[in-house]
Specification:
Blueprint: E1 2-6, H1 18-31, E2 40-44, H2 49-53, H3 56-63, H4 84-96, H5 102-112, H6 123-134
Parallel strand pairs: 1-2
Helix pairs in contact: 3-5
Length: 137
C-alpha cells in the first residue's frame, strides 16, 4: 500500500512537519490494525496538483473544445510552484468560466496525460512510481 499526502495542504494549519505527519499516519495505521511494514509513504511538498501542472498537454486537452482550442503554457518546475491548486483553478476560470473541481477534474487530467514523460521530472512522482512498483498490490 502506498499513502500519498500533501505536506502543505490547502487548509495549512500549523507548521508542516514530515516527521509529525509520519508519526500520525503510523499511529492511525496501528489503530486500524494495518501492518505498517506493508505501507510506503510519499509526501508531496505542496499539493497533488503539482503533478497535474507538470503536463500542460493534459490540461490543454481537457479544456479544449473543437471550436476553441486551448494552449496552456508549460510549468517547468511544477513541484516548486506555490499553491498549484490555485494556479489550476485560475487556468480553469480563464478558459471555462468555472473553477477547478479536484474531485472531478484531477482524474480527467490524469487520464488525459499522453504518457509519464513530463511527470518523471517530479521527484515525488518518481518516488511514488518506485514505491508502487516495489509494493505488492
Amino acid at each position: 500500500m502506498v499513502i500519498i499526502w500533501d505536506l502543505c495542504p490547502t487548509w495549512g494549519e500549523g507548521n508542516p512537519c514530515r516527521h509529525n505527519d509520519r508519526e500520525d499516519i503510523f499511529r492511525a495505521l496501528a489503530v486500524s490494525k494495518v501492518d505498517a511494514k506493508k505501507v510506503a509513504l510519499v509526501c508531496i511538498k505542496e499539493e497533488l496538483e503539482a503533478w497535474l501542472l507538470a503536463d500542460e498537454r493534459a490540461l490543454s486537452n481537457i479544456l479544449s473544445r473543437p471550436t476553441h482550442p486551448v494552449s496552456i503554457k508549460r510549468t517547468r518546475k511544477s513541484e516548486q510552484a506555490h499553491n498549484p491548486k490555485k494556479r489550476i483553478t485560475q487556468i480553469f476560470r480563464e478558459n471555462t468560466g468555472r473553477p477547478y473541481n479536484d474531485l472531478l477534474d484531477a482524474e480527467k487530467m490524469a487520464k488525459a496525460m499522453p504518457n509519464f514523460a513530463r511527470l518523471k521530472r517530479c521527484d515525488t512522482f518518481v518516488r511514488f512510481a518506485r514505491k508502487v512498483a516495489d509494493t505488492e498490490l
